[in-house]
Each structure stands twice: as C-alpha cells, then as structure tokens.
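Preliminary data (for renewal application), pantoate complex.
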Amino acid sequence: MKPKIVRTVESLRREVARWKADNLSHAIVPTMGALHDGHIQLVREGFQQADRVVVSIFVNPTQFGLKEDLSRYPRDEEGDVEKLAAEGVPLIFAPTVEEMYNLNAATSIHMEGPAKAGLEDKFRPHFFDGVATVVAKLFIQSQATAAMFGDKDYQQLMVVKRMAKDLSIPITVFGVPTHREDDGMAMSSRNRYLTKSERSQATAIYKSLTQAADKIRNGKNPQSATRAASRSLTTLGFKVDYVAARNAETLAVPTNTTEPLRLLAAAWLGKTRLIDNISV
Ligand code: PAF
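Predicted structure:
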C-alpha cells in the first residue's frame, strides 16, 4: 500500500495520535529524500524498534552554507514514495520550508561539544546548528520514541544523540551501521554526482581508513596512521579536508591508548565531497 503523505505538523500529529490511541509505538527516520539502500536500512531498523515508522523528507535549507549545493541537492519524491511503499512505511512527513520554519520563528539550536570537534564543523560552520534545530523539531513534531540515523554521518549521529539528551527529548537515537557497496564504498545521495572513473577511484577513502585502522590495531600511533592515510589520498588526486582519529563518543582528540577510537575522513574528488568513517 502507498504511504500516506502529510505536509503539515497538524496532520502529522493527527496520524500519530491514532497510533498512540491503539498503543502502537513509532520510530522516525529523518531524511532529505533521494533515498538509497542506506536509507532503506534505516527504515528496516526502525521497524525492529517500533510498530510503525514515519519517514520525513525535508531538504533542510538551514544546514546548507551559502556556497553549498542546496539547489543541486537531488529530489525525487515519486521515487522515494515507491521505495517506502515497498517497505510497508505507512506515513511520510514532507513539509514545505514555510511549514517547518514559520516566518516569525525566533528560536534555533546552537551546539558545542561534538558539534565543534573540528571535523565537519570546520568546513561547514552552519551545518550542525541547522541539523540540530531541524532534528529537534522533527522529534517534537513526530513524538516518536525511536529515531534511526546512519553511522555514515558519524559526527551528525553524535550531535543528535547529545542534543536529544541535553534537551531531555524522550526518544532513543539509534546509530545504524553504514550500508556499503560490494567494493566498500559507503552509500550516499552524493555518490550520484561522481563520474564513472571517479566512482571507481572513490573506494580509496574506505581502503585508506581500513589500512589506518589495521596499523593502529598493530600498535601504530593514531596520528601517524591517519597522516599516512591523508598523504596517500592526496597522492591519488583527492583534496583532503581531514583524516582524523577521535574518541568514538566525544569526538575529542584521543589522549591515551585505551580510548575507543573512530577514524573519520572527508575529501573532495572532483566536484564531489565524500565522507566516511570506521571504528578501530
Ligand atoms: O542526514 C541527513 O539526511 C540530514 O542531515 C537530516 C538528519 C535528515 C537532517 O536534515
């Protein structure tokens, strides 16, 4: 059956009130649309955690910088609806920008902590305040008790977890393992911008991260392992924004050898910016 599409907070609330009256729990999967298998994985995980799943589709302008690709961002609502119908998703929330940000809005969220780790935030200064604001609104609007986010956007996941905790929003944020193509490439809506040859080159990011993780497991210092990964990507023609080893929870620079580590990378290949991360 086709999912019902609602475009206002009022109609979203009406739908979830019915579920609540029937004692059914629901999870939210926040997306910006252009859904790929990675999103479908989030939906399936949502159904593991709750009786119903609502998927939001909203290309959030406040998380795009002036020079970023808001107008270029892929949109395919018809295709998205079809994919979600195949997964048995009953409800899609697809608000307009006006509905999400009413003209008189005077409130937004500013975050420190994981949002100021010197990773994505260094290159996209508006990004996490925009994400935290829209995700907080989606959590409150949907009244879901579970939310699914991909590990792929690891800093985003840590930011959203922290925001929900700090604001005491009664929701559990789940991180879902990155969905990868057979060659290891992390799935992303932006992969469609890659030319054929860039696409085959792009797996080097994942490969360099796994090599660095192996070296660290074998006793190499994390900073030298990530520096080597960055150098090898540069040699292959990437413009590297960062390759970093960070504490897996706080995203702070590690200070001892017993901390859980996450390796994170962002690099440009031609006109496309790619990110990936793995645990050590
Ligand atoms: O990861 C995304 O697609 C977006 O940042 C999100 C979480 C839907 C917020 O707009």
